[in-house]
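Fold this sequence, please.
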Amino acid sequence: MPVTIIVPDYMPYFIAVLGLLVLWEVHEMQVRAGKIQAKDFWDRTGIRMFVRITPQDAHACAVCKDHCGIVLLAANSRKARATLHAGCTNPAGCRCLLVGLYGGWPDAQKLLDRMKQTSSSVHFTTEDLRALLGGPWERSVSASVDRVSVHLLEAMLSEQTDPDAAAFRYRFVIDHAGTDRDLPFVVPAYLRLTDLHRSQKQIAEALAVIERFDHHYPEDRTVPHAPNANQRSFMKAAKQQLLAAR
């Protein structure tokens, strides 16, 4: 008597998903082995390298300061993301960010080529980063995708030397972040802009930023890339301090 095998309707989909997972793992193994570069995938995201950055103020701990300015290939960023906040001793929480760039201008392209040849990251000084961002990025093919990232990096680098310029750039991030790669930076931009106004004794300006933040991220609604509990606590405490100082 012949045996009838009934294949569930979902089985072809299950096999297809399993096949994709196997292909992805093989791809990852080849990238880690240096046999191929994950260029095509990251090019579609508009990111080919990441810059680790932290605010340059008195609250930055030694660990975060030491890691500030590390530039690495996007294909090597998984470990960097996993360890981004490790070792930070700031009581208010780590403020380090990994900011992605396509890097289409000449200096950035040279840096990318250098990292691809050595398969290693580069540790830039603040001056090195300023020089890199001071290149003709606005005339490059990546200007549209890198604009928010560049403004954020320049803002964090110029807080101590040119607070007005830093404030302008943080506002630019808040106003113009609209893609998946840029939206995670809106909350940090709000926090840094508030802190910047507070450090400059600009109470009205700081309160205006907090009011906009509260409107942007209401606690009774779920919105993408919403602030976490520590970030909300920071803004609430800042508001209380500012109201008391008026």
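The beta strands are 49-53, 70-73, 97-101, 122-123. The CA atoms of residues 60 and 90 lie 7 Å apart.
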